[in-house]
Structure formats: structure tokens, C-alpha cells
Amino acid sequence: MMRKLTALIALIASPLAAQDFSEGSEARSWNLYAEVPARFEARVVDVLCELSGDCPENCGDGTRQLGLIRTADDVMVLPMKNSQPAFTGAVAELAPFCGQVIEVDGLMVEDADLNARNIYLVQRIKAGGADWIKANTWTKKWAEAHPEAAGKGPWFRRDPRIKEIIASEGYLGLGLEADAAYAEENF
Amino acid sequence: MRYALPLLLSSLALPALSAERTRIQVTGEIIDTWCYYSGVMGGPDAVVGSAHHTCALWCSAGGIPVGLLAEDGTVYMVLKIAQDAGSASGDTQLSLAAHTVTADGMVYERDGLNYIVVSEVVSDMDIVTPTHEDYGTVPPFSFPEPK
Predict the structure, then answer these.
(1) What is the predicted ipTM?
(2) Which residues 43-72 of chain A have a CB within 8 Å of chain B?
(3) pTM here?
(4) Is the dihedral of CA A32, A38, A39, A42 positive or negative?
């Protein structure tokens, strides 16, 4: 009986451990050292709510990090990035789907040297019977929320909060004198 | 044995359904986790401290999760700092970009990642690692040429 039980445990555990989520993925490479294409179904959750029970309405309306609890194995994946190469996260893309089961396609980062596990860059989202949509709306939403910062150049050069901190702490964060010395040496 | 199998199956499911929770006090740098884990800007030593301060501001304001990189190399994903649960582009975490802090809080582990709910920043040591001396600024364009 014990032998049968051991075999059953192995049977149950092995598919989860070795599961490959790359099948059907159309994720574009970012040429990252540890990237792996991954397409899977998952439920969108508020990470803080999931872990601690602190649960505001609607996953915090885009103010909190969101997780993806994968249907296949109940693993909570942390989507860190959207598909824009612009220093932009994934929350704005996933917040409209709080509590819903959706399908995502993108890149998983699995780097044992840095203990990176279940970290994700989401490139596209499919919800319900709708077509796939690109996870690239962050900058548009930022522009709509910051009409006072309209202008040329990327958002991160125009963001009021970033500009205020750099104006007082400098680009190096060590004060304006340190910035001046660095500029003198490097430009 | 009659009850062994259901018990075993339920115990196999438990780790995925719950998160362990531990109170800690930890010292480390508030980092940009995407650049740290992805290697998109270079190795982990280059994406901390003064070299990466401006990029850390960009990523934090952009809603990328910030982490607390402890002295032992453990990264804790920051979910809340005191009363500010704005872990996606929140003001408090933005004000601490690249700072080394000592934080008191509750740690949760789930599926290989550590998360921290900071109840108090016990001390804020500002930026203590002058990595720009070795790496310049990362990425280089984060420090624009003066006009």
C-alpha cells in the first residue's frame, strides 16, 4: 500500500513541477538572460489582499501590485512589467480584470542565481470571449492622468513627482553638488 | 489508511493556498526589482545605489514593484509602508528609491517570492552606496548631458 501511495504522490507532483507554459505562446523575446515564454490562464488578485486579508474594493483600483494565480497549479505569479520598454509596470494593464480569470502571454523570468521565480512580463491579455489585447496602455493612461505634464520627450522626463525629487536630490540622489561634480567629469 | 489519502492530498495543496508569515526587522536598499531580476540594465551590482537612483525613480513611478534588498541578498517585495498601501507607483516608496532603510514588518512567503508589509521604517540612511563611481549611471542616459 505504501508503495502505491508513493507512486501516487509522484504522479500528482511531477506534472506540476515540470509544467511547461510555453506552448502556444507568441511572446516576443526581450533578449533577457533568463526569459522563458509563458502563456497561461490565471485569476487576477490583489497581492496584499491575497497574503494578509487587507482587501479594499476592486483590488485597490490600480494602486496596488496585482498577482496572477495560475489555474493549472495555483502558483501566484508576480507580473512586474507590461510590454512597453518605458519603465512601466503591469498593474495598469491588469487592474480592469480584478477578480477575473484571464489568459496572459508574455515572458517568465526564472533565474536561480538571483532567486528569481514566478516573475513575469505580460505582453497580451485575453479576457472572456474577447480578442487578445496588447498590454501596452500604461503611457496613454499616464498622459490622460497628467495633462499638466504634456510635452515632448518620454513620460519619465516629464513626470512631476520624478522632476521634483531630482530637482532636490539630483540624478545620483546624492545632492546637487555631487551631480555637478559628476557632470564635470563625464561630459 | 482509509483517511490517509484525503489527508495527504489536502496537505499537498496547503502550501499553494496559504502564505507563511513572520515578523522581522531588516536592513537593506529599496530597489527596482525588474532591473535587478531581469538583468536588462546589467548585473545586480550595477542596478543599486547612486548609479541607478534615477532609473529606480522611473520604475517606481512607473508602477514596477519595489523591493527591499537585504544585506544577505534576500529580496522582499514591498506591499505597504506604514499606512501607504500604494505599492504601484505610491508616494512613500517613491520617496525612498535607492535609500537604505531599516524596516520593521511582516514577511509573507509565497511560491518562491518574499513579500513584506512594512509597519515602520525605523531608520532611513538615504543612499549609502556610491555605485556611480564604478558604473557611471545605469542606464547612461538617466543622467542627461547638461545644456
Answers:
(1) 0.90
(2) 47-48, 50-52, 54, 56, 60, 62-66
(3) 0.89
(4) negative
